[in-house]
What we know:
By secondary structure, the chain is an alpha/beta fold.
Amino acid sequence: xxxxxxxxxxxxxxxxxxxxxxxxxxxxxxxxxxxxxxxxxxxxxxxxxxxxxxxxxxxxxxxxxxxxxxxxxxxxxxxxxxxxxxxxxxxxxxxxxxxxxxxxxxxxxxxxxxxxxxxxxxxxxxxxxxxxxxxxxxxxxxxxxxxxxxxxxxxxxxxxxxxxxxxxxxxxxxxxxxxxxxxxxxxxxxxxxxxxxxxxxxxxxxxxxxxxxxxxxxxxxxxxxxxxxxxxxxxxxxxxxxxxxxxxxxxxxxxxxxxxxxxxxxxxxxxxxxxxxxxxxxxxxxxxxxxxxxxxxxxxxxxxxxxxxxxxxxxxxxxxxxxxxxxxxxxxxxxxxxxxxxxxxxxxxxxxxxxxxxxxxxxxxxxxxxxxxxxxxxxxxxxxxxxxxxxxxxxxxxxxxxxxxxxxxxxxxxxxxxxxxxxxxxxxxxxxxxxxxxxxxxxxxxxxxxxxxxxxxxxxxxxxxxxxxxxxxxxxxxxxxxxxxxxxxxxxxxxxxxxxxxxxxxxxxxxxxxxxxxxxxxxxxxxxxxxxxxxxxxxxxxxxxxxxxxxxxxxxxxxxxxxxxxxxxxxxxxxxxxxxxxxxxxxxxxxxxxxxxxxxxxxxxxxxxxxxxxxxxxxxxxxxxxxxxxxxxxxxxxxxxxxxxxxxxxxxxxxxxxxxxxxxxxxxxxxxxxxxxxxxxxxxxxxxxxxxxxxxxxxxxxxxxxxxxxxxxxxxxxxxxxxxxxxxxxxxxxxxxxxxxxxxxxxxxxxxxxxxxxxxxxxxxxxxxxxxxxxxxxxxxxxxxxxxxxxxxxxxxxxxxxxxxxxxxxxxxxxxxxxxxxxxxxxxxxxxxxxxxxxxxxxxxxxxxxxxxxxxxxxxxxxxxxxxxxxxxxxxxxxxxxxxxxxxxxxxxxxxxxxxxxxxxxxxxxxxxxxxxxxxxxxxxxxxxxxxxxxxxxxxxxxxxxxxx
Length: 949
C-alpha cells in the first residue's frame, strides 16, 4: 500500500454489504499488484488506503498465515467480514486437524484454529455476511454466512478431510475448492448401490474369516481394518474405465494383497486356496479373460505374487480393461517406480520414428503404500520426483496409503517426524485427502475425486486411508505384547461391514435376515471353491529346473549388417537440417565419422553404439535409453541429441532415419538410481518388444539400485515368470579415479548369475559392443530373452586399440572369447595363457608393443563372463600341448571382479598338471586406491607380473 489516510471518513463510508465486500476483494488484489486493479479504484486506494484507517491492520492480518485473529477494539463491518473470511480459510487449511478421520478415535482433535471464539465472532455477525463472500460454491440450501461456515465445517471436518493449501497453482486450488465445497463428488447412492456396497464388504470380510478358520496360523497379511480399500479400488477402476482407461496398474505391499487379488483383479479363490494348501494350482487358471496368473519355476510366497488379467470392472459389465497387480518382494516400496514404468509403456505408441506418442488417459497407476513406508522409504520421494519429468511422467499416479497407524510393531510416533504419513507428498504439491476407513461412502468419494483430479491436471494425488490392523503384523503375531492400548480398542471395535450393515438396517434398506442370507451365500461360495482344490502335493518338484529355452542359453543370432546399408545409415546421421548450427568443435568430430567408411579411420565406442541403434531401429525395434547425462554421455562421447549453438533447439539424427517404423527415446534421468532402474525394468516388462537400456553415470552408482538387481532383474523370471530383456550399461575400469569411480562391482552380478538368468559382458572392443547390442535386440521377443549387464568403458571410449574398422561391424559377430592378435601363434611354444576381461586386456595389448620374444605366451579376452564360456576356452586350450600355467589377470582386488567366479571354472578346465594363478590387486575392503600415482605403479606391477616369465 503506497499511502494510508488518517481520515476516518472518506469515500468508504458509503459502502455497505455486498458493495463493501466487492471493495475489500479488489483491495486484496491491490495489495498483491496495484496495477492490476481498475485505475479509478487504484487512485482511491493510493489516496485513502483501506475502507477504514483502523481496518488497515485487520486487512494485513488477513494476508498473514497466523491462525489466531483479533478484532479491533471497535470492530467495523469490514473487520468482521475479514475475520469471517479468515475463519473460512482456516477451516479449509486446518479443518483436517479437527476431522473425524480416525476410526479408533484415540487421537485428540484440534479445533483451536476454527472456533468462532478465536475470531471474536458471534453467530449473529456471521448471519450478516453474504454466502458468496465465504463459500462461493456452496449448495443452494446455504443462504447466509453462518450456514456457510457450518457447511464448511461439515465438509472439512467429517470423515473425509482435505489438504491442498500447499498446492500453489491457483487453477488447481480453485478446482479442488469448488468440487469439495459444492459436494459434487459426495456419493448419492441408490438403494441398489448401497446393497452392492454392503455385498462387497461382506465378500471382503467373509474371505478373510474363511481363510482365518480354514488355514489356521498361516500368514496372509489380512486386510481387516482397511476393508474399504477394496470398494475404493473397485470404484476407481470402474470410474476410470468408464472415462476411457484401458489399463490399470496396481503396486502394493502385502497388507490386503490376497483380498485385492481376489476381488479387484479377479484371481480365482481356488488358486489362492491352493497356495495356502500347498497344492498344485496351475490347472485352476481360468482361460476366460486371463492374460496371466504369474509363477516361475522356483515360485514365491502367495503374498508376493501378482496377476495380470483382462476384466470387466464392477458395475460396468460391457467394458473390458487390463488390470495388473505387480509382483512384489518384501522390499515393498520398490514396486512403485516399476508400476510407473508399466504405465508409461502402456500409454505409448512406439510404431513410428521419433519420440513415442503418449496418451496418458489410456493407462494409470495406483500405488498402495504402508503408512510407515511412505515417509520412511526414500524410493517414495524418488518416484514422486519423477512424476512430472519429461522422460518419466505418466499423467499422474494415485497413491493410496493403507494406513493402519502402525509399522510392524512401531507406532507412528517412532516411525516418522511428520504429523501425517502422507506429508512427504506436500513438497511435490500433491493434494491429499484423509479418509476414515470405516466410512465406505466417503471412500468412494475420495476415489472419484482422486481420479478426476488426475484426469484434469495430469498430476499425482494421495488418498490417506486411515484404518487399523485387526491382527498383528501377520496372523502369528500377538500385538498385545507390544501395542496393548491400541489393541484393547481394536478388540472392541466392530468392523466396517458390521457398521455399514447397521446403517442400512437403520435406514430400512436391508433386514437382518437378508444380511444373514448374504453371508451364507458368500460362505457357501468360498466352501465350493475350497472343495475344488486338489489335495496337498506330498511329492513336490524339488529340482525346480528352468524350462529348456532358458537352460539351453541363447540361440544362434546373425548380427552382421550389409556394408552398404551400414554406410547409408552413417551418412544419414551426418546430414543435419539446413541452418542447424552444431557446436563447431563437436561438428568436426562427428563429421570425421564418415572417414571410417573410406578406410581412413576406425569406429570408436560411441560411434559403434550409434550405428547399432540405427540398425536396430531400421529392423523395427523401438529403443529407450535413459540415465544421468545419457543424451551427451557422461564422458562427452555419445551426442545423440544435438543442440543448435545459436537457438538452443534440439535435433536427434536417430529420429530422422528414412523408412523407419520404430521410436527412439533418450532422456537424461534425475539423480536417482533405485527408482529409475525400477521404472526402466517396469517399462521393459510392459513393452517387451522394446530395447530398454539404463546407463549409470559411473558403474559404482548402480549400488543404489541393488534391490532392483537382486529381487527383480536377476530373479523375476524364476520367481514369477516375468520376462525382461533390460540392458544395464555400467561404466567400469581402473584409471586412477578413486574407489567411487572405478568399479561397477562386477562380482555382485556374477554372484547373482544362475540358471542362465542374465548375461554379464565386459567387452574390449567397440565391434563386440555393436554385435552384443544387436544380439540383445534380436532376442527380445523370443522365449530365450534375458537381461544384459554390460561393463562399459571410460578411457577405452576413444582408445584406438578398442576401436574397429567398418568391416568388423558389417561382417563380424559377437565372440564370447577373443584371442589376442600376435600371441599364441606357435602352439608348441606356448606355456602360459593369460585370461582377463575388459580394459586390462587392452592394457596388455599396449604393453605387448614394448616387448619381444613372447611366443611362449597367449592371451584370451573373456568378453562374456556369465554364462562363462567354458566350451570356447576348452577348445582353445586343446591347441597347446606344452601349456604349464593359466593366469587370470584383473584390475580389481582379489575379492572383487571376476576372479572368485572364474577360479573354480578355470581349475576345472585346466589340463592335468597345469596350474591356475591369479595376478592382480590383493584382497581389499575398498575397490581401489585413491591416489593416481599409486594406481599407475600398481597397474604397472600387475602387467609386468603377468608378462614376465
